[in-house]
Each structure stands twice: as C-alpha cells, then as structure tokens.
Amino acid sequence: MAAPSGRSGRRLWAALVPAALLCLAARAAEELSTADFDVRPGGEVHSFSRSLGDYTCTFTYSAQGGTNEQWQMNIGVSEDNLLFSCSVWRPQGKSYLFFTQFKAEVKGAKIEYAMAYSQAAAGGQSDIPLKQEEFEISETTVSHREGKFRFELSKLMIVAKTPRDEL
C-alpha cells in the first residue's frame, strides 16, 4: 500500500500511522495494567506512576480550579516485548481543570509516537488534539511547552520502543 499523497493525504497518513501503532500495541499486548487515580487541583505538583516489568510510565502535573477528577492510566507491553504503551486520560472526556504543567515520562523504552489531547473521545465526541506547538516530545518524555500550552489536557498517549536484545 502506498502512502497517500498531497497535503490532505499527508494529514490522513499522519493520523493513520499513530492509530495503527496504538492498535497494534493494544492487540498484541501480553500484559495490560489499568489504574484509576484522582487528578487534584490546588496548584501543587503531583505524580502518578505505574510499572509493568522493566517499564514505567509517570504522569506529573499541576492543575487549578474545580474539584478532583477521576483519571485513568493504562500501560501495556506487546507480546513480542517490542512496544510499551502508556495512556493517561479522563474517561469522561473533557477535563474542566486548568493545567499549568504536565509531563509524561517513560522509563525502559524510547518514545516512537506520542500525542496530547485537549478533549478525549466520550459521549459521541471525538478526540481533539493539542496543537503541535503546545507540547514537546523527547526520547522519553511528552510535556507542555512553556508559553504555548493553552492549559487544556484530557488525554496523553505514548507508544515507545523497548530495547531489543540481539543474539
């Protein structure tokens, strides 16, 4: 199959590749772990972490306004142990908190794909991605970009490649 061409084709391709990676990671998952946690406002920095085997995902944030919100972290390792996935999101869709900062960090793997959303799909609504200038991606982190982030966050998704032991 050839990659779509032209401007709209590139956008379609850019949307399909990450979705395919996430589906593959989810379907091939040998191990999955889901944990609920509260995102707490108040302006203090909080962290939530989960590990699965040699891999860890940590979500660090600071938020203002409202009351605690129920969020969820899902982590998984593919059956072939080549991909580690981490998603942090508000299952109800949109968060009403005002995030002053956020960072998701993976340990034991290097990020292959990541995306941040101002609204998570729920109740017939679609995911709404943050603009690329609002966040930055490094080998191991996805974080807000100071001065560009518009304080809305409802979902983070990461697919990371695990180190491969060659024989």
UniProtKB/TrEMBL annotation:
Keyword check for Cell inner membrane: no
Pfam families: UPF0556
Organism domain of life: Eukaryota
GO terms classed as biological process: positive regulation of angiogenesis; positive regulation of endothelial cell proliferation
Signal sequence, start to end: 1-28
GO cellular component: extracellular space
Keyword line: Signal
InterPro entries attached to this UniProt entry: MYDGF (IPR018887)
The UniProt record lists the keyword Signal: yes
Entry protein name: MYDGF factor
The organism of origin for this protein: Calonectris borealis (Cory's shearwater)
Gene: Mydgf
